[in-house]
Amino acid sequence: MEPAPRERVIFERPKALEPVRMHYCPGCTHGIVHRLVAELLDEFDLVDSAVGIAPVGCGVFAYDYFACDMIEAAHGRAPAVATGLKRVRPDLFIFAYQGDGDLASIGMAETIHAAARGENITIVFINNAVYGMTGGQMAPTTLPGQVTTTTPLGRDPKLAGNPIRVCELLSVLEGPAYISRVTVTSPRRVRAAKRAVRAAFQAQLQGLGFSLVEVLSNCPTRWGMPPDKSLVWIEQNMVPYYPIKEFVVAEPLRRPASREEKSAGPPPRGRESSLREALP
Amino acid sequence: MRGNEAIPQAAIDAGCRAFFGYPITPQNQIPDYMAAHMPEVGGVFLQAESEISAINMVYGAAAAGVRVMTASSSPGISLKQEGISYIAESELPCVIVNIVRGGSGLGNIAPSQCDYFQAVKGGGHGDYRTFVLAGWSVQELYDLTRAAFALADRYRNPVLLLADALLGQMMEPVVIPHEVVDPTALPLKPWATTGAKGRRHNIINSLHIYPPDLEQSNLRLLARYQEAAECEVRFSTENLEDAEYAIVAYGTAARVVVTAIQQARAEGIPVGLLRPISLFPFPSSRISSLAEKVKAILVVELSLGQMVEDVRLAVEGRCPVHFLGRSGGVVVTPPEVLEAIKALVERRRE
């Protein structure tokens, strides 16, 4: 019998993430979400049969970070690119990674129609209520009253329209197999987010149709606040407007575990206060 | 068969296995034909929600290495330009059909050649070109469609097939060769995003944030265009051997010109036709040598003068270049061309 090794790896970089330095700002939650996607690519052994579609926006360089084949799409067009690819190669696992401007503004037509067709693709949707890459302009998901460079006095819905709740909008369609909104403001939230992305992956792997996970995310740089405070801001301002929940769960995805998660009621009450306490 | 049926049949015969389109007149028979016949060969037909989505679906399918096509008409081709720019810079092969209609704006659905500039000068943003092939008969549309797929794969560049409402809608006999392309027998595309099994990941991308990288990428495209200018120029000539006057026209305009040339020759005027088939690369050197030989050149187009600029660039003042064009979907007539030929001779006498 061989002696037990003295050292044991308990945490490492997912194989699906390239060993390169990311360009994201300190405290940005893109890193967490990249990691979740990569962990699930590893878990389902998809690194050599997946193709990811990168957006235009802060996620644009995602093609350098994921170890699977990658395509950089035009602004908002990722669902159409994913559709073309999936239709000719249904054997490949196709995911798009998109921000709010990309998915819910310039690319809304592509998003809605891919969902309505029940296109068997997975979209990870980063909603941080602002255009990060271009300098902090109003996004389709910018909250009423939120200050951006193009709403310097705060978003006035009378002038600048109302924010769009993407999950609610898509969940009235027949095509989606899994639609869920999560956030990554605490370890518990991150674990729940991973469960949602896993369900979205399973939806595609089981051929059930369109799946999308919206991740309420931060932008410390453009929101002008430290990362810890930005997480509190998500909980205090975004979560009330954009409820954390599963909107569409196709029958085959309804595992006993997810029922328990649901019946456990609205997650983590204590976490907001603990975050607040953590602030200086 | 109809022009708009010969094109999709040729695409299928060329091994095209995916078509993404959106309805617009006068090209609607192309997606109709694809919807009916693509399933027979196990290919993909999908009606997209817009021209923009259609071209981006083409981008996705081309990235997977599949021979893929989209078709539209002028306003729809304008919408596709963003995607065409991305496809060109990402070095992906595909075929785009433009059944040109009268423009600008919503224009009308009559035949026109008003999209020449858009087709040959790039169309979308950036420092790229699309290869452009223009036929003048249904048979030639069939043949050029097949050639377009080979050209796209060889140069990893989008190829635009330019026809017009008249060529798309008219019916002519077509000889279809027995040999068809088996897409599974085509050379593998090692750059395609088909899953990174046993290799490092492939990236299809048009973003080069460091300017010298983008310049290198653009120079690589330029080298391909220069190679194509050597190897891929196509044109045909009629009655040029003894011609003292030459007409340069392509597509539908060239068909009208042929009738006028017969009438002019019957009246003793030695006039011939040079018909560019590849509009990019343009038969510049052939036109240049033609300018040494003839007394004057007349360019005839269904536009207010677009290709004439490329003819003048090729002629470089070696002989006078005159222009006759009708616009807005009005098709030039043989008597108008004959009159313009006689005016050439008259000017020469003066």
Give the assembly state of these chains: heterodimer
> How widely separated are the two ends of chain B?
48 Å
Strand content of chain B: 15-25%
**CATH architecture annotation name of the largest domain in chain B:** 3-Layer(aba) Sandwich
Looking at the structure, the CATH topology of the largest domain in chain B is Rossmann fold
CATH superfamily of the largest domain in chain B: Thiamin diphosphate (ThDP)-binding fold, Pyr/PP domains
- Helix segment tally of chain A: 12
Question: For the CA atoms, what is the radius of gyration of chain B?
Answer: 21 Å
Describe this structure in words.
- The complex is a heterodimer of chains A (280) and B (350).
- Chain A has one domain: Thiamin diphosphate (ThDP)-binding fold, Pyr/PP domains (Rossmann fold, 3-Layer(aba) Sandwich).
- Helix content of chain A is 39%, strand content 16%.
- Chain A has twelve helices and nine strands.
- Chain A has helices at 30-43, 62-65, 78-88, 100-106, 108-116, 157-160, 166-170, 187-205, 220-223, 227-241, 256-263, 270-278; strands spanning 50-54, 69-72, 93-99, 122-127, 130-131, 137-138, 176-183, 210-216, 245-249.
- The longest helix of chain A is centred in the last third of the chain and has 19 residues, at 187-205.
- Chain A starts with 29 loop residues before the first helix and ends with a helix.
- With 350 residues, chain B is of the alpha/beta class.
- Chain B has helices spanning 3-13, 29-37, 51-63, 74-89, 116-120, 138-155, 165-169, 211-231, 251-266, 284-293, 307-315, 334-349, and strands spanning 18-21, 44-47, 68-72, 94-100, 131-134, 158-164, 203-204, 235-238, 245-248, 271-276, 278-280, 296-301, 321-325.
- In chain B, strand 1, helix 2 (29-37) and strand 2 form a beta-alpha-beta unit.
- The longest helix of chain B is centred in the middle third of the chain and has 21 residues, at 211-231.
- The radius of gyration of chain B is 21 Å and the shape is globular.
- Chain B starts with a helix and ends with a helix.
- Chain A binds chain B through residues 18, 47-51, 53, 60, 63-64, 66-74, 77, 80-89, 92, 109-110, 112-113, and chain B through 17-18, 20, 44, 46, 48-50, 52-54, 56-64, 66, 68, 82-83, 86, 90, 193-198, 201-207.
